[in-house]
Amino acid sequence: MLLSNLFTRHKTPPPRFAPGLFLGLILLFVLLGQAKPVYGLIGIGTVLIITAGMVEINRQRIWDQYKKTYKKQAGLLGLWTKPNQIYYTINVMILWPFIMFLGICSLFAAYVLS
Questions:
Q1: Of 48, 63, 78, 111, which is the most buried if we count CB atoms within 10 A?
Q2: How many CB atoms lie within 10 A of CB 107?
Q3: Quick one: pLDDT band at residue 83, thresholds 50, 70, 90?
Q4: What are the extents of the domains in the chain?
Q5: Could you report the per-residue pLDDT of 28-45, keeping only the tens digit for each?
Q6: Residues with Cβ < 8 Å from 36, sequence gap 6 or more?
């Protein structure tokens, strides 16, 4: 019984805590930045770089998951929430690389302040 479980591929659940964790860490480091600006900048920069990297790495999985869950959504169906390839491309090619750039700028600012 135990050996058969080694060869069974289980479906990985989607991360449900990621958006809350992202916002919570940003808020924590913003508050820490009030007392110690260098530590706040390092924390914010690190969180932004890691988050942007994870979104870029998992972009196809995120897109497929959004298209699949959109059909099951009740309530907010419409023009602004409909899966659109143009919005997806803008998000992946412009927004998240810019967030990564802001993280790098934050780390550079922390280096200059220290």
A1: 48
A2: 17
A3: confident
A4: 22-113
A5: 999 999 999 999 999 999
A6: none
